[in-house]
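The following record pairs a protein chain with its ligand, heme C.
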Amino acid sequence: MKTNLLKYSVSAAALLIIGSNAMAATPTAAPKTYPAGEVGKMVKLGEDILMHTNTHPLTKDMVGDKLQCISCHIRGSDGKPGTAPGIATFIGTATAFPAYSKREKSVQTLQDRINNCFMRSMNGKRPIVDTKASVAMAAYVTWLSEGMPMKMNAKMPCSPLNSERWMHGAKHFAKIQKRATHANYVNGKKLYEAKCAMCHGADGAGMGTFPPLWGQKNGKWLAYNTGAGMSKLNKGAAWVQSNMPLGQGKTLKDQEAADIMLYVNAQPHADFDLRKALYPASKMGHYNSKVLHEKHSVRSNFKQFGLNVDKIRGDHKIK
Ligand code: HEC
Ligand code: HEC
């Protein structure tokens, strides 16, 4: 009893100290209660869509893979989408919007930011801003920041916490990936088979509720495309080191995370063509971006780091 009390007062004191730093104080659970009335209904609808994105009637036609938002914005101990503490948590996200995005060369709303994940991570079509699904998802993500101070972001369309982690992680892993050779690919395959394949499958196609990482089935792509953050050798490694193996985030060494994602992202993923991910202007209305042409492939994603995917793989299987 005494030791417990001591422990409590020590951690309470530690909390007070780090409490002055808004980032360390980021909560790791959703608020305890939903908002009342129509807003609460929207929040719940958004939560449902984030859990079942590729089967939900309001979004299934806009998804071109077998992923859900929760595949990457992982559920925390409260079971809610995006509350896990790793990189890509949604807690604090809404405090940063509207925020600047270099990719679109524009100031993005939270709906814009969410809808862009459909074109890339979900390998699908961008939902139309202000439709029910778009408002509902933004309502849910906003709820997760209730009570947190606003902190506008002039550099990245991400929460203050995530943007710090992405900027650091992307820079750090870019240096490591630029030095990659075929030996790193071979090591990545070996590690993948030892630490990841039991859930994601040796063929990357996923198993049961464990999501796919690459490839096609019956002519349909299974995972994120080459325009997604996860497909970039540096960002993919930063995310995996923070969140995987599931429940054992932060256990992979830098070189291990880098080699595993070198291997994963050298497997077949859909090409990205921005124009094909947008509805025609007559249907979509305004698209809030100054960049209207953007294309990526597995090959170009490797080239971005000065790497030749054929040499890394040791074959010529990537088109
Ligand atoms: C394959 C993984 C993946 C899936 C699936 C995915 N996202 Fe993301 N999402 C990311 C990554 C990676 C980033 C940050 C990347 C960057 O900024 O380059 C991100 C960023 C975001 C952000 C900005 C959050 C912040 O504070 O950093 C929002 C909001 C978001 N996603 C919403 C969604 C929604 C809603 C869905 C489902 C429709 C979804 N995402 C599906 C990987 C994914
Ligand atoms: C115990 C099972 C398990 C292990 C082991 C595991 N994962 Fe995962 N992984 C998951 C689950 C489950 C999710 C999605 C979270 C959800 O649906 O709640 C996920 C999500 C992912 C995603 C994002 C979604 C997607 O499909 O693209 C990537 C990338 C990923 N894992 C890579 C890895 C890598 C690399 C390893 C090995 C270092 C690994 N995982 C080990 C279960 C696992």
